[in-house]
Amino acid sequence: MTGQYTPKSLNSIMDKPGTNRVEAANNLIEAAGGKLLSMDSTASEGPGVLVIFDVPDPSAAPAISGTVVASVAIHNVNLIRLWTQDEIAKVRQTVSQLRGKYSQPGS
């Protein structure tokens, strides 16, 4: 998940530079049954954050991002589903089974 801090969040961070956003993210992700893997700052599109987390239930990811957005902490959120190589291997097997079952428009 990536996002940019809102002006309100940036002001809060500047007022309290020792604030621990990693702890806040970790608490939320763990409450959703997940695990925080990494959290890094970004600057390409304004002060922001890149958070990588793992959740066993795929619906937890949008719930986590929605909770953070609703708190007005970040905006311009981009939630990206990452696939492990084992998961991709299963996808490739399924694709192999489905080949020839679909006809493209005009055929």
Fold and architecture overview:
With about 110 residues, this protein is α+β, with helices and mostly antiparallel strands. It is about 40% helix and about 20% strand. The chain contains four helices and four strands. The protein has a four-stranded antiparallel beta sheet with strand order 2-3-1-4. It is elongated.
What radius of gyration results from the CA coordinates?
18 Å
Number of strands: 4
Largest sheet: 4 strands, antiparallel
Structural class: alpha+beta
Uncertain spans: none
First-last Cα distance: 40 Å
Give the fraction of residues assigned to helices: 40-55%
Order of helices and strands: EHHEEHEH
Strand order of the largest sheet: 2-3-1-4
Shape: elongated
Write the layout of secondary structure elements.
Elements: E1 2-5, H1 7-15, H2 21-31, E2 35-42, E3 48-54, H3 60-70, E4 74-78, H4 85-98
Antiparallel strand pairs: 1-3, 1-4, 2-3
A few lines on this structure:
The protein has 107 residues and is α+β, with helices and mostly antiparallel strands.
Descriptive keywords:
107 residues; alpha+beta; 4-stranded antiparallel sheet; 42% helix; elongated
